[in-house]
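Prompt: I keep going back and forth on a fold encoding question. Comparing notes only helps if you start from a blank page. Show me how you would write down a chain together with its backbone fold. Please set it down just below, with no commentary around it:
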Amino acid sequence: MFPDARGKLDVEDLLRLVLVLVVVWLVLEIVGGVLGILAGLLGPLRPLLGIAVVALIVLWLLDRI
């Protein structure tokens, strides 16, 4: 179908692509771990945190902030 299109990707470009994907994967793992730790620490306080966020949004919408 496209005989000239096969094998046009350089090894360096392929290695850069793999490196970027590994870096993205590591960043996602680190962020997930940090969020997991924060969720564990804030476990009992999460409902209060949600109420505080809702209250701040309502006050901002009513121009009370």
Notes: The radius of gyration is 23 Å. The chain has one domain: 11-61.
